[in-house]
Amino acid sequence: MSGAAGAVGSMVGQFASLAGARRVVGSAGSIEKVRYLVDELGYDAAFNYKDGPVLNQLRNAFPDGFDVFFDNVGSDHLAAAIDVLNEFGRVAMCGTISTYNAPEHDAVPVDAFKIVAKRLRLQGFIAFDHEDLREEFAPQVGAWLESGRLTYRETASQGIEAVPAALTGMLTGANTGKAIVRLADDPV
Fold this sequence. Notes:
Number of domains: 2
Number of strands: 7
Distance between the termini: 40 Å
CATH architecture of the largest domain: 3-Layer(aba) Sandwich
Radius of gyration: 17 Å
Strand content: 15-25%
CATH topology of the largest domain: Rossmann fold
Shape: globular
Order of helices and strands: HEHEHEHEHEHEHE
């Protein structure tokens, strides 16, 4: 299970597939992004988190539970994952985008009893913590990109005046993939 269909989540789902995950499911905020995850990125399934409770959609996607969850959303996504994860499941926590626009950071509503009873492992991480893996990571990802097995999209804007709209679009889900603001024309 991967988090939202942003630049990070879309890469993580592809990495999971390429590494041999049995089933990769993602969530996104529009039917177009759901189609993108399945049709272009090769996810086994995806759901629109705006179509109903994430917990119900996640249970439908994984009636027998799942073992690994990548979380960059927090909030109802994390709470639902804790409910549907199998015993000894693992959660890689990389962000909490659901709180980025909030004036106050509310606590994520999780059931601590389920975390203990299922013996779940929740681990926060930042990519910079793993610089020692760069020499192994770069050639592998480069080969996947070159072969076309790993793909990505960018939503590009032009000029410094586009920064506020690009940032707002990134935080509200208006973009697909990585949001980029080009300050100068690309060299020829």
